[in-house]
Design goal:
single chain, 100 residues, mainly alpha, 76% helix
């Protein structure tokens, strides 16, 4: 699958999850749920499929999402957060799978 298509699929998943996560938190949902954990548990299979990485662990994916979030906060705050996170995931998961 083309890297651009993968990126767009991941971006769409993250945007959907971001909206759902915000709704949960705003409605008084579980206070100790963080975004990375929420996305992994809600969309794990969709993210695995879009990343073409069926064996990526929840812990690895959560860690990558947290790193992407920190990157956005520290470096790219003017860019769309889902775009930055999707690009980060696409680059890091693909780079790691090519190294194996």
């Amino acid at each position: 699958m083309n890297c651009s298509i993968i990126h767009q699929n991941i971006k769409a998943i993250l945007e959907e999850d971001g909206t759902a996560y915000s709704t949960v938190i705003e409605s008084g949902g579980v206070a100790n749920v963080d975004y990375a954990g929420y996305c992994c548990h809600i969309s794990l299979n969709r993210l695995r499929q879009s990343l073409n990485s069926p064996n990526i662990s929840v812990d690895r994916l959560e860690g990558l999402l947290r790193r992407a979030s920190r990157k956005h906060t520290l470096e790219d705050t003017n860019k769309d957060w889902a775009y930055v996170m999707a690009r980060f995931l696409t680059r890091h998961v693909n780079a790691n799978s090519q190294m194996v």
